[in-house]
Design goal:
It is a single chain. Helix content is 31%, strand content 24%. It is an alpha/beta fold. Strands 14, 15, 16, 17, 18, 19, 20, 21 and 22 form a 9-stranded mixed β-sheet that branches. Strands 3-2-1-4-6-5 form a 6-stranded mixed β-sheet, with helices on both faces.
Length: 589
Amino acid sequence: MSVVVINCGSTSLKAERIDPVSGERFASVHVERIGEEVPDHGAALAASLDRLLDGSVEVVGHRVVHGGDRFTAPVRIDPDVVRALEALVPLAPLHNPANIAGIRAALEALPDVPHVAVFDTAVHATLPRRAHTYALPFDRARAQGIRRYGFHGPSHAWVAERAAEWMQADVRDLRLITCHLGGGCSVTAWENGASVETSMGLTPLEGLVMASRSGDVDPGALIAFARAEGLDLDGLDHVLNHESGLQGLAGSRDLRDLEARAAEGDDAARLAIGVFAHRVRKYIGAYAAVLGGVDAIVMTGGIGENAVAMRQRIAQRFEYLGLALDPERNADARLSDASPVAELSTERSRTKLLAVKTDENRSIAMAALKIARGGADIAALPPIPVKVSARHVHLSPDHVEALFGPGYTLTPRAPLGQPGQFVCGERVTIVGPKSRIERVGIIGPPRGASQVEISRTDEFALGVDAPVRLSGDHRNTPGITIVGPKGEVVLTSGLICAWRHIHMTPADAEQYGVQHGDHVEVELDTDGRDLVFRDVMVRVKDSYALEMHIDTDEANAAELGRNATGMLVPTGANVRVTRRDTRHDRVDP
């Protein structure tokens, strides 16, 4: 069993045939100067087919840089998909045309093999609105698709999973910062197994200093520079993408060359190295603040995996995070397929610093294989009941007594869809810094730890910032005061906005072709307000009943009525799924 992975640049073609399960490599091809020595991508691929196809090929996976809002998961390629990719070219004019050329050439050469597009941007579809929104005129920017998308998704996801495996933890239980440092550079913050911040934006130009890309620059500086140089937009685009970064600062895009020159006293090379390291360190510090702490910082890419001196520069001054670099481990680290993770921090470091070997091709191959092997036939599946989960409180037994009196027992008023759960007759008041909300419902029976679930609208009313969490996940969550008729309870944690999710039994999950921990998309068919909800978590347990839960804000956006239902969004004939590591089974109580 093998998968061909194709990655087309504007003047290059890289392809590899690999076994995505074992990681074994069977053949690889790298063609440069397409348009000069080779006429086009089709000719480059045709000249490589004998080497790539010396064996059975089950699927072809294509790296596509930009999927926009349309493609938030891998997708089987058909004519409609190709047309949609062409419509996205304005968002990635340097990358997507080459990706499409490779797809067309491969479809012509291998018409009988399934082809799957895997997107750099898809991993970052989980970015919250506050992270992906630019402070531009909102309606006009949205009409042009201008927002932050992020890139290097397969690499970031691969090394996050490998780091979690090395730490013997579920990636959803870790706060990680992954740094892909190579010719292109980006940083991603991971929480609950999802990307919640990333340094690249609408294009791969934003963020860190790179080989020839500028990274962050004051827009006013760009205007001043363009005026002074007499540059039009195309000229400025070329400067920022091809004449800036390390190349612009010191005349070379190769860090090894700059380090050699710096050792000889070259001030321009020293400056370029200092600026590069400073920018990475600044982003790590910012993302540690976004996450409220960090369990591990991961270095990958050509620089992250190999540049000992640069890793040491970046890792300086992170003692406040509980991280201390071990210089000997850093110098001795050698990554390979057999040993893809190396710890660079000391044994006693609370925050780990790791170097992890990335494998974008294998990540793409695994994603493509899952799509090609198919899933459930969406047309034949029943719709999923959708229920609105209004603001409510779960109480522990001791907090029931603190609020309602010693020996008090909650009064069941009405059963809920999930077996054994019920709405209680009692009500409480929740009090935030700004205001209070009275007559908040209680869901029984009591559970081990108290929890308050509110909507974004409630957040602003109360003056609090409640993170999106699965029920029962109280890590790094704020508290709130709950007031009852006999007393009050001050929670130090447990205030959340609930992650939209679907409860399923194992039989339901098998029928829909999903697993516990998968992230899926669900389309709601309502009167004039049809919506697709992304990043819906699948929760699987024997005692569950099939229901999707959303909060009041989400229901209002869809004008959801009684007996509402949703359908899993298909990709070709398959459920659109983002699969996470689910070795540790944390489910709603």
